[in-house]
Amino acid sequence: MSGLDGPAGKNLAQLLSGLKYLRIWGDEQVPVQGLAYHSGRVASGEVFVALKGCQTDGHLYIDKAIERGAAVVVLEDAVEPTPGVVCVQVPDTRLALAHMAAAFYDHPSCNLTVVGITGTNGKTTTSYLLEAIWQASGAQVGVIGTVNCRFGSQVRSSPVTTPESLDLQDLLAEMRAAAVDCAIMEVSSHALDLKRVQAVRFAAGLFTNLSQDHLDYHGDMESYFAVKSRLFCELLTDCGDGPQLAVINRDDPWGQKLLPQTSPPVLTYGFAAGADIRPEDITLTHQGIQARLHTPYGRLDIVSPLMGRYNLYNILAASGAALGLGISPEHVVTGLANITGVDGRLEPVAAPGQPLVLVDYAHTPDALEKVLAALKALDFDRIITVFGCGGDRDRRKRPLMGQVVARGSDVVIITSDNPRTEEPLAIIEDILAGLREMNCPRLDVSEAREGHRGYLVIADRRQAIRQAIAIGNPGEVILLAGKGHETYQILGTRRIHFDDREEAAAALSARAKNVTDPDKLRQAANRRKGA
Ligand SMILES: CC(=O)N[C@H]1[C@@H](OP(=O)(O)OP(=O)(O)OC[C@H]2O[C@@H](n3ccc(=O)[nH]c3=O)[C@H](O)[C@@H]2O)O[C@H](CO)[C@@H](O)[C@@H]1O[C@H](C)C(=O)N[C@@H](C)C(=O)N[C@H](CCC(=O)O)C(=O)O
Ligand SMILES: Nc1ncnc2c1ncn2[C@@H]1O[C@H](COP(=O)(O)OP(=O)(O)OP(=O)(O)O)[C@@H](O)[C@H]1O
Ligand SMILES: N[C@H](CCC[C@H](N)C(=O)O)C(=O)O
């Protein structure tokens, strides 16, 4: 991380101020040009912070960092001092990195209204809703999340949902410099566990829901919850400089468990009578959601183009946070109406006279259940679902996803998501265990075309999408679940370009021309061009 764009004139003592450390070798007054947590990105005069990771240990790269000119090394393990290099031993280098990065950038979160959104599902959608609301109020907004990071005219790709603490503080500092008023960020459980947001001053924390995911990392639901709850129990109570709002889904059992652990001010939302923000007179259609919201700030008649009851939850969450942070009810109503959609979340790929294709990011049992229930309520003639499960991720959710999809769909096409380093057919086998428990029959293509209920296995995602679109009819919906906005597929350690929306558009266009293989269309077009 180059110090050139960063704030000048810091020394190590300033970065360590308030941080517990065990031992220091060398001069605390040494000037610091920047910070880095990867040895290959260290520049002269910078601090290298050694992190213990899942693949390797940053302590192994200390010599490399010093070779590249590190002036300071922050570490957990005691080491032999290197002449000319200051060493600081701390109990937790991730905590130290978060703390020092915030100090290096002069605590940008203190100059922004930062809203942190956590929960298994709904974070991205809620962040888009909050963005639309704040924009309606005339504010400058920044968003940090799974789809991308954006502020002003800047749009940056997001390798992870919540950036590493150093990258996050750098980004928040850029937002502050660009006169952003409100930074809305998704806070993943990994980020909470790995202390990426530890030194962020949140104006509000928002809890959407908790259901099974990431158990490969957290082990069990209690541990997953304990990590999520840290946003509310530790981070919202850390600073003592003014109230920090908690917005919690009261209908979610884990939200109920969180409530007594959270200090006021708290706003709850949900359909239950006691919720602070709750809806009535609800209409859910293909056009979206219409409802009246009861809130401590008055009644709001809202409309939004987002579809499905679960999106009403996201609307309640966003409305609660915005109202609680002083946005007027009028701006909330305008923002909710202004949103045009969320990338890769029930994103339509439509063509006249064709089945409707919806690309969605449901990749947990709960998300699939909610999205399929939303489609069921819209009375399509048939629901055809194409989905797979990510490799090198929570295996235990796979049969559950299989069951949910079998229950909610007429035809299921099981395919690959991002297999990563797992064998695609082995992942599919895990999913099939769930379908078998539901006694869901295996079909051949002609049976699926003729309207039988059951499943097909087509491991190649492109072929699976083409087949779904070939067997679908107008009036039916084809849900392509799991990859949403992603523009890649990870096969082994290779990342190839792959976009469900492009694949669906190509297959729909082939279907319209009565061609089963879109490649034939492409070849014909190329021949015409060559002719
Ligand atoms: C499982 C996980 O979260 N891993 C994070 C972890 O990486 P790691 O444990 O693999 O790190 P490592 O490769 O073992 O390296 C350890 C340390 O040595 C350093 N190193 C390594 C090699 C070298 O030559 N020199 C060197 O200094 C590395 O920079 C690192 O600091 O620490 C890294 C640095 O802090 C993170 O970037 C990395 O996130 C990776 C990219 C990741 O994919 N994370 C995913 C699972 C994730 O966090 N996802 C959530 C979203 C989940 C959701 O859907 O809610 C997210 O917040 O995005
Ligand atoms: N409130 C909700 N409850 C349950 N499912 C939801 C909710 N909101 C969205 N979903 C489903 O979850 C999927 C992912 O939604 P979204 O991206 O908003 O959540 P997320 O928490 O950001 O997910 P991720 O962390 O995996 O990026 C959607 O495509 C939809 O299928
Ligand atoms: N942030 C989530 C995204 C999963 C998306 C799905 N397409 C997959 O690859 O499993 C994860 O890393 O578990």
From TrEMBL:
Residues 32-105 form the Mur ligase N-terminal catalytic domain. Pathway: Cell wall biogenesis; peptidoglycan biosynthesis. Gene3D superfamilies: Mur ligase, C-terminal domain, Mur-like, catalytic domain, MurE/MurF, N-terminal domain. The modification N6-carboxylysine is found at residue 228. ATP binds at residues 119-125. Residues 508-531 are annotated as: Disordered. It holds the Pfam family Mur_ligase. One of its GO terms (cellular component) is cytoplasm. Its EC number is 6.3.2.13. Meso-2,6-diaminopimelate binds at residues 393, 417-420, 482, 486. Residues 344-484 form the Mur ligase C-terminal domain. Catalyzes the addition of meso-diaminopimelic acid to the nucleotide precursor UDP-N-acetylmuramoyl-L-alanyl-D-glutamate (UMAG) in the biosynthesis of bacterial cell-wall peptidoglycan. This is UDP-N-acetylmuramoyl-L-alanyl-D-glutamate--2,6-diaminopimelate ligase. It comes from Desulfobacca acetoxidans (strain ATCC 700848 / DSM 11109 / ASRB2). The lineage of its organism: Bacteria, Pseudomonadati, Thermodesulfobacteriota, Desulfobaccia, Desulfobaccales.
